[in-house]
């Protein structure tokens, strides 16, 4: 991977040497200049991932900040100064600085700030790339994620989509199996034709047969006309058989015949109708085990399972959570007409430590809820469901490996909730699930009432 590129504006040689030693040791590619004019020249030539600007007498860091943000809005700028004032700090932050660092500063803190700024820059690039892909493919929704497992999955999808092979998509509920099926269709030569999906576990055998194969006029009571089934309607396109593991055994025989002969017979009919479809199947079950236990036909399994794709649960690709969360933030802000700027770092930390039994769908619901109830420009901890609001507290306890009494644990949690609500006792009581009088008694009991 290409090293992050950092532009440093510093006019004191000794400070530049120190910074160079710190930054190069971290693996960054650093360009040094000693004036604002030289910095602007470098910015005219190429884009950097981060700019470090010193507010010295001969270096107008604010001008560099403004120019950088005008040219490259996603590039972060850190202002460093030895003569810090409140007014200069406010001005820098108002003009878009990522951080305002006063000298002398802690080296470890400096490293962390630089790392976080570069992470934010990378996340912004990934979000922009995903937005570009969405726009270029119209309604096509690309898979979000830069984790190794998702990159491998995307690579496989790109390889198999242009072919016409059948595919089984495996994964837990909420991982996005239908999304993958749609993406395969949209990247295939069948993209201009129909994509249809049916949940095989949502219908009785009779209804499923009618939905898939259609029926002839008067095939049964109430059949007043001919109805095309989904298989016939998807001619030339793609059909997704979701929850294929729940398909009745006798229906599996009929489906196998369609796949093998490329023909079907409507319910109540005798005429064979040619169908040209690509079949994708999805399930959260272990189909191989289902075959072994006699609940799924082996011949159908091998017909469908030309290629199998596995969607990892969200807990196995936690590095994708910030990207997904920010995508859903934009999505629901647009839908709800809100202008929420970001998700707080603490919320992101909570989300990346959560197990997500409901996978991506659960994360989407959490962000939708947070956007709905948030009033300010930032998604905060108290916008999360109650169980997640308690999560960082539990994480901290597990990490310390301490055994606390029930009273100690309650005291610490109440103190944490008050901190998150900025001392708002009404909101804290609501989060804790008690009334305000009960909270007041507990505060008095634990001797930190204020």
Short synopsis of the structure:
The chain has 450 residues and is of the alpha/beta class.
Descriptors for this entry?
five-stranded parallel β-sheet; globular; Rossmann fold; alpha/beta; 3 domains; single chain; 450 residues; Helicase, Ruva Protein, domain 3
Description:
- It is a single chain.
- This protein is of the alpha/beta class.
- The chain folds into 3 domains: 5-128, Rossmann fold (3-Layer(aba) Sandwich), CATH 3.40.50; 148-312, P-loop containing nucleotide triphosphate hydrolases (Rossmann fold, 3-Layer(aba) Sandwich), CATH 3.40.50.300; 318-445, Orthogonal Bundle (Helicase, Ruva Protein, domain 3).
- The chain has 20 helices and 16 strands.
- The strands form 5 sheets. A 5-stranded parallel β-sheet has the order 2-1-3-4-5, with helices on both faces. A 5-stranded parallel β-sheet has the order 7-10-13-6-14.
- Helix 2 runs parallel beside helix 3, helix 18 packs across helix 19 (425-432) and helix 19 (425-432) packs across helix 20 (436-445).
- The longest helix is centred in the N-terminal third of the chain and has 30 residues, at 107-136.
- The two termini are 52 Å apart.
- Mean pLDDT is 83; it is low at 137-141 and 394-401.
């Amino acid at each position: 991977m290409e090293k992050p590129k950092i532009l440093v504006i510093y006019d004191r040689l000794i400070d530049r040497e120190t910074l160079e030693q710190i930054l190069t040791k971290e693996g960054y590619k650093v360009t040094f200049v000693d004036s604002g004019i030289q910095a602007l020249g470098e910015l005219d030539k190429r884009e950097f991932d981060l700019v470090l600007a010193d507010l010295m007498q001969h270096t107008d860091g604010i001008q560099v900040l403004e120019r950088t943000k005008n040219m490259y809005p996603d590039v972060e700028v850190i202002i460093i100064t030895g003569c810090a004032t409140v007014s200069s700090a406010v001005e820098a932050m108002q003009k878009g600085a990522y951080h305002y660092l006063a000298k002398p500063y802690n080296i470890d803190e400096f490293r962390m700030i630089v790392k976080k700024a570069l992470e934010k820059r990378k996340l912004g690039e990934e979000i922009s790339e995903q937005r570009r892909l969405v726009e270029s493919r119209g309604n096509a929704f690309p898979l979000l994620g830069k984790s190794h497992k998702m990159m491998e999955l995307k690579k496989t999808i790109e390889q198999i989509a242009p072919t016409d092979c059948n595919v089984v998509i495996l994964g837990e509920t909420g991982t996005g199996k239908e999304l993958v099926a749609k993406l395969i269709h949209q990247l295939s030569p069948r993209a201009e034709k129909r994509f249809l999906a049916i949940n095989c576990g949502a219908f009785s055998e009779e209804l499923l047969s009618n939905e898939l194969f259609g029926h002839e006029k008067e095939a049964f009571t109430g059949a007043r006309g001919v109805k095309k089934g989904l298989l016939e309607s998807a001619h030339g396109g793609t059909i997704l058989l979701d929850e294929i593991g729940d398909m009745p055994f006798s229906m599996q025989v009929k489906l196998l015949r369609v796949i093998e002969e490329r023909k079907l017979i409507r319910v109540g009919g005798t005429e064979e109708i040619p169908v040209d479809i690509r079949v994708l199947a999805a399930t959260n079950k272990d189909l191989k085990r289902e075959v072994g236990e006699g609940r799924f036909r082996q011949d159908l399994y091998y017909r469908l399972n030309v290629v199998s794709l596995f969607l990892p649960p969200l807990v196995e690709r936690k590095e994708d959570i910030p990207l997904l969360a920010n995508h859903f933030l934009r999505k629901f802000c647009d839908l709800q007409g809100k202008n929420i700027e970001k998700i707080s770092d603490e919320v992101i930390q909570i989300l990346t430590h959560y197990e997500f039994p409901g996978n991506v769908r659960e994360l989407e619901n959490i962000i939708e809820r947070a956007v709905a109830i948030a009033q300010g420009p930032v998604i905060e901890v108290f916008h999360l469901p109650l169980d997640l609001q308690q999560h960082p507290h539990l994480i901290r306890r597990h990490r310390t490996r301490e055994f606390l009494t029930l009273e100690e644990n309650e005291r610490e949690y109440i103190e944490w909730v008050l901190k998150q609500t900025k001392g708002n006792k009404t909101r804290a009581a609501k989060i804790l699930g008690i009334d305000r009088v009960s909270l007041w008694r507990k505060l008095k009991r634990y001797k930190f009432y204020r």
